[in-house]
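step=encode ok
step=design start
structure_in=
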């Protein structure tokens, strides 16, 4: 009788050990999944921070340039093709482009505007680019300005 108790006790211990190993495997899998999700969320949050910074830098540069245009110190065509990097954020590069407005974009649902209406109007656009790892990202911001 004493032997049956020992073998029953041994079987119970073996089953318990298998259950512990299985439970550890399940917990390990769950932890790996949670860490992967957290890592992905941190990457996405970092991307959002860069997009917000790029937008703020583009708006700031656009506002400064528009102030110079309104003051008559430069014309929209003077800044066409100018490019550089931001002093405090050298990982962000900027480039200005100016062009004539596209009549189809200006009045997509109506007849073309009367001739001469868009004379003296330019599209001023800034592109701010940056890298997220090895991926190049860019943000475009544009507005209409008068050359007169």
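sequence_out=
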């Amino acid at each position: 009788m004493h032997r049956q108790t020992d073998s029953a006790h041994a079987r119970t211990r073996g089953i318990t050990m298998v259950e512990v190993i299985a439970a550890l495997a399940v917990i390990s899998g769950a932890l790996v999944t949670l860490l992967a999700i957290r890592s992905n969320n941190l990457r996405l949050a970092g991307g959002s921070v860069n997009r917000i910074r790029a937008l703020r830098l583009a708006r700031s540069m656009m506002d400064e340039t528009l102030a110079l245009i309104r003051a008559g110190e430069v014309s929209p065509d003077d800044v066409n093709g100018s490019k550089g990097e931001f002093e405090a954020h050298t990982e962000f590069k900027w480039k200005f482009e100016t062009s004539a407005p596209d009549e189809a974009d200006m009045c997509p649902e109506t007849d073309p505007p009367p001739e001469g209406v868009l004379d003296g109007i330019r599209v001023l656009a800034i592109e701010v680019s940056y890298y997220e790892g090895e991926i190049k990202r860019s943000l475009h911001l544009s507005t209409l300005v008068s050359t007169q």
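step=design ok
step=annotate ok -> The beta strands are 83-85, 93-99, 121-132, 135-146.
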